[in-house]
From TrEMBL:
Belongs to the amino acid-polyamine-organocation (APC) superfamily. Amino acid transporter (AAT) (TC 2.A.3.1) family. The lineage of its organism: Bacteria, Bacillati, Actinomycetota, Actinomycetes, Kitasatosporales. The chain crosses the membrane at residues 35-54, 60-79, 99-121, 141-162, 174-195, 215-239, 260-280, 300-320, 347-367, 373-397, 418-438, 444-463. It comes from Streptomyces natalensis ATCC 27448. This is Proline-specific permease. Residues 1-21 are annotated as: Disordered.
Amino acid sequence: MTSVQVEKQHDGNEAAGDASEEGYQRGLGNRQIQMIAIGGAIGTGLFLGAGKAISMAGPSIILAYALVGMVIFFIMRALGELLMYRPVSGSFSEYGREFLGPFVGFVTGWTYWLFWVVTGITEVTAAATYVQYWNKDIPQWVSALVFTCALFGINLISVKIFGELEFWFSMVKVTAIIGMILIGLGVITLGFSNAGDTASFANLWSHGGFFPKGIGGTLMTLQIVMFAFLAVELVGVTAGEATNPKKVLPKAINTVPWRIGLFYIGALIIILSVVSWTVFKPGVSPFVAAFQQIGLPAGAGIVNFVVLTAALSSANSGMYSTGRMLRDLALNGQGPKFFTRLSKNGLPTWGTGVSVGMMLFGVWINYVAPGEAFNYVVSFATISGMWAWIVILLSQLRYRAKADRGELPQSEFKAPGSPYTSVFALAFIGMVIVMMGLDPDARISLYAAPVWAAILGVGYLAIKRRESAAAALAKQD
């Protein structure tokens, strides 16, 4: 359903977000939605990014993940309230368009599209790098090309296949983290392995204290931690294809606290207890480092496989979401009309195909510069992803105000503590953006954001002029 259909929804008897209105098939079941929600919170930001964060903050990084995790829950409950009001595949782009204006919807849709294109490039590149762990003779660009084409093919079959692949990708990540936690507990309590003599919960405060780099060091890690949670909002994009969104989506969102508690905070507590925080270094997975300290010979290889899975999962999600975002933009007159076309299986193949074509640029990068890092690109992805969260929160505040005045129906899944929790989350995101400005590595994204905003502004003005010209011609006729 597009924004222009909203009034019809309120006045008529059609169910909000009926799949037939958008043309999609509701092929994602409860099992798949739950694992997509779990997988969205577990990615390379945890498996790799945590290493740099630990080196910057020490054990206090646990508090950073807990604090950001709380903010993420506020964001997801705000999204949940909107989803139960109107579950559509355009999700936060649609809500931004309805509650904040067509320009915000335009900016959000295209920015979220770019976010996933950029993320897809970095994740496919990362996956190609991980393959070289086993065979350095395989050119990096070849692996990147194979992964991109394979995932594109899967996204062309059916949404059920996408959901099933994401289910197993998430299962691998969940199993790996639970296994690591259990092994770590065994090392701490039973004292086996090479790390048995030094493993202790006392490692959380015995090497310079819980805040060895001070509060400032902990605050500087917030943007890294925020990046680790990017894509958690992907569950909102699945709303238009969930078999029973009003039942499945609230259940998935309500699992956010225990997912963060177990997979992030729980895993970090165990890892930092098994091995002193001083061992971890930027660019090295803390999971790999912990396995090496424990002395499990296959540990590094297992973790490399898990990180490879996480990268492919993220790229797969990117292909899924970009096609839906481009179609939503086209349906609202904010993108080329051919993006509205669906395949016989109800898939936005044109939008997905164009997005994958952009992602193939990453294959070229892997060919000409396989050793180059993507730090700047990742920073831009972070600021782009946070824009989606800002729009979710602002849209929920506007929706709640209208619903309280009786102008719109109340959601069946209200965000607890709102509007205070939403305002707090907005303030927190603002603080993180300020912290990014103080970090030389992340500052480039703040320079790139205004350029992207200017490009979008020009594009939006062009669309409005075209609409005005068409309207003038219609009047003449």
